[in-house]
Amino acid sequence: MIAYLEHFVHGNDTESRTDDDVTSLCKALDLQGSINCGPVDVACKDFGGVKSVEPLAFVRPSSTDDVARLVRAAGGSSNLTVAARGNGHSINGQAMADGGIVMDMRSMEEKIQVLRINGLAYADVSGGVLWEDVLKRCVSGFGLAPRSWTDYLSLTVGGTLSNAGVSGQAFRYGPQTTNVTELEVVTGKGDTVICSESDNSELFFGVLGGLGQFGIITRARVLLQPAPDMVRWIRLVYTEFEDFTRDAELLVTRPEGKSFDYVEGFVFVNSDDLINGWPTVPLDPDHGFDPSHIPPNSGPVLYCLEVALHCWNYDLPSNIDTAVNRLLGPLRFVERLKFQVDLSYTEFLLRVKRAEQHAEANGIWNAPHPWLNMFVSKSGIADFDRLVFRSIVKDGVGGPMLIYPMLRSKWDSRTSVVLPEGGEIFYLVALLRFSPPYPKGPPVENLLAQNHEIIQRCLNRGIDFKLYLPHYKTQEDWKRHFGNQWTRFVERKANFDPMAILAPGQRIFTRISQP
C-alpha cells in the first residue's frame, strides 16, 4: 500500500489521474473521507496571502481513524509530510505542505457535546469545529460558554489550541490552552492517544501551543462556565501611553469581582483618517468622536482602553451603571471621550464577524495580510511605544493595532508556548493590516520589510519579546525563539514525531527520509 501511495503522489502522471485513481487511493488507505490529488486552491494558500505552495494531495478525513491512517501511511513513505489545516487562518504558510499532504480538519464529523463531571461543565469538541459554533451551541442549548476566547471566532478549536488562543479574557482565565482538560491527539507516529494533565501528560502539554509539531488535535475537552446574558462594552481614550498602561495593568491585576470581565486596548492615529484614526473608536455609528477634547500637544497616536462587564437579565440598569462607574472611578482617561453600548453576549463575542463581512464587501478580506503578533514584556513596552507606535507605524497599518496586558501566572509553563522572559505582566501587540491589494495598497514586500524592521529594532534595543504565531526561516532562529525551552521542544519532537512528518510549513524540523 505504501509503494502504491508513493507511486501515486510522486509519479509524473498527474495530468492523467482520474476520479477512479483517487477512489483507488482512498480504498488503499481504507479512508472514509476523500482525496484530491494535485493542486487544490484552498490547500495552496492561507489567510496571510504572502506564501503559496502546492501539496501533492488534499485530504478531507471524516474521522480520527482517517487522520491516523494517513499519518501512518506518510510515515511508511520515503519523504511524505502532513499538515493539518483548520480554517486556513495561518499567515505564513504554517498549515501548508510543499509536496506533501494537507488535511482539511473542517471535513471531520462535527461534534459538540456538553458534559458535567464532578460538578463542572465541559464541552467535548471535534478539533475541526469553529469556536463560533461552540459558542452558539453551548449558549443557546445550555446557557454555558467557554471561559477564554480569541477575538475572531471563525477559527478551529485545534488550530488555536496549537498556538495559545488569546483575547481580552486571558488576563483572568489564561489563554485557551489553560482551559482545556483533555485532548485526543494523533501523533506523528500515527497513534491515537487520549491525554490530559494526569494521563500522557507530556503529549498533552506538548501539543498545547506546540504549533502542530507533535500531534494533530482531533478532540478537545473545554471547560465551561455560565454565560452572561448581556455585555456592557466600553471604550476609553487616552493621550498618554503611561496613563493607558497604568490603568490597563490596574484592571488586569484586580481580583475577580472587582474588575471588568474583558480588558483589551488598541492604538489609533490622531487624525480623522477613516481607517486608522478617530472614526475607528466609537462603538455606535450615531456616536461621533469630538477631537476638540484632545489636548493640542498630543502626539501622533492615541490609545484606547477597551473593557466589558458581563450582565444578566435580572440586573437593574441602575446597578449596572453604579458598578461601571465604580470601576471607572480611578482611571485617567479623557473624560469626554468615553463610548459604550449594551449588547448580547453572543453579539459581543461575534463582533469581529461584522468586521469580516464589511471587509469582504470592500474586497480586503482576501487580500494579503502580513500581520505581526508579539508578546512584549512590561519592561520593554514603553520603549516599544516610542520605537514602533510613535515612529514606524505612526500613520497606522490599515487595520487594528492591538495592545493589552496579560499575566504570566495564568499561563501553564508546561505547555509549548514561549513567553517573554521577565516579569508577571506582559503585553500582546498585534499589527493587523487590512490594506487593499497592490496597487491600491502598498506592496506586500514593503509591509514585510516593515515587520522585519520592527523586530530588528526591538532586538537592537534589547526589548524582551517573543513572536506569537511565530515563523522563522532557519532552525537557528527557532532555537533563539525557544531559548532554554528548545531542548524540551526537540525531545518532544523525538518522542511524538521522530520522522518530522507533521507541520512542515513551520520549517522547524526537516523530514527524516526512510531508507
TrEMBL record:
PROSITE patterns: FAD_PCMH
Pfam entry (one): Cytokin-bind
Catalysed reactions, semicolon-separated: N(6)-dimethylallyladenine + A + H2O = 3-methyl-2-butenal + adenine + AH2
Chain ranges of the FAD-binding PCMH-type domain: 51-227
Enzyme Commission number, as recorded: 1.5.99.12
Keywords recorded for this protein, A-Z: FAD, Flavoprotein, Oxidoreductase
InterPro entries attached to this UniProt entry: Cytok_DH_C_sf (IPR016170), Cytokinin_DH_FAD/cytokin-bd (IPR015345), FAD-bd_PCMH (IPR016166), FAD-bd_PCMH-like_sf (IPR036318), FAD-bd_PCMH_sub1 (IPR016167), FAD-bd_PCMH_sub2 (IPR016169), FAD-linked_Oxase-like_C (IPR016164), FAD-linked_Oxidoreductases_BP (IPR050432)
Cofactors named for this entry: FAD
Superkingdom of origin organism: Eukaryota
Iron in keyword set: no
A Gene Ontology biological process term: cytokinin metabolic process
Family note: Belongs to the oxygen-dependent FAD-linked oxidoreductase family.
Protein known as: cytokinin dehydrogenase
Organism: Quillaja saponaria (Soap bark tree)
